[in-house]
C-alpha cells in the first residue's frame, strides 16, 4: 500500500468515548386525544466521566429524558446511547445506577441489606455483597448505621443510602433525578460536597437533574438548559471552574456570572 492511500481514522476512533448521548431524540405522549411533545429533537453528547446537569422549568422533559436513558421509557424516534450501547443493554449489563428524589428504600430491610439488594438480585454471595455494601456505606458517611432501619434515618441519610445502593453494581453511568430536591439547604450543600468526592473517586458519567442553579453550577462540567412546550435543549453552558470544587467557589464572581447566564436562559427560553 502506498503512502498516498493511507486515510485518517474515522471520527468514531478519535472522538472521546460516549458516556451518554441523545441523537435526534423525540418523545411524544397522547393526552386526552392530543399529542404532547415532551422532547423535541434533543441532541446531546456527554463524554465518559463527565458530570452534566439538566435544569429547566417544570414539564420541559427532564425526567422524560432521564427515564429514556434509564430504559424506563422508549423514544418515539431517535437514538439514545448509554455507555456506548443501548439503554436496554446498559441496564441489563448493570452499567446504570439511578437515584430519584425519594429514596425508595425497603422499610423492613436494614440499611446494609438495602444497599446490598441489587447484588443479591445478581446472585452475589452474602459475604461478598455485605462487604461491598459496608464499604459503600462508609464512603457515603454512614458507617455505624448498617443495622438501622430506613425510618430511623433522616431524609439526607436515606438519600445517602439510595446513592450507595445505586453505586453497588459499580455502574459506569449514574442518573440522578432531583436527588436532593426534598432536602434542606445545609444538608443539600453537604451532600453536593460528598457527591463531588464520590465522583472524583469513582468517575462515573453523571446526569443530574435539578431545579437549583447554584447546585447545577457547583457540581457540573456542563449545564444543559431546557425549555418547555415543546421540551427542548436551549443551550449547553460550560462551567469553566477549576476542579475539585470548593465551597468558597460559590462566592466567586466567575460562579455568579455562570449562574446569571443560566438564569437569563431560563427566563428567556433562549430567545
Ligand atoms: N407517562 C406520561 N403520560 C403523559 N404525559 C406525560 C407522561 N410523562 C410525562 N408526561 C408529560 O411530558 C412533559 C414532560 O414531563 P417531565 O416529567 O419529563 O418534565 P420535567 O421537566 O421532569 O418536570 P418537573 O420539573 O416538574 O419534574 C410534561 O408535560 C408531562 O405532563
Automatic annotation (TrEMBL):
Gene3D superfamilies: P-loop containing nucleotide triphosphate hydrolases (3.40.50.300). PROSITE patterns: ABC_TRANSPORTER_1, ABC_TRANSPORTER_2. InterPro entries: AAA+_ATPase (IPR003593), ABC_transporter-like_ATP-bd (IPR003439), ABC_transporter-like_CS (IPR017871), ABC_transporter_ATP-bind (IPR050166), P-loop_NTPase (IPR027417). Keywords: ATP-binding, Lipoprotein, Nucleotide-binding, Transport. One of its GO terms (molecular function) is ATP binding. Residues 20-253 form the ABC transporter domain. PANTHER family: ALIPHATIC SULFONATES IMPORT ATP-BINDING PROTEIN SSUB (PTHR42788:SF13), TAURINE IMPORT ATP-BINDING PROTEIN-RELATED (PTHR42788). This is Sulfonate ABC transporter ATP-binding lipoprotein.
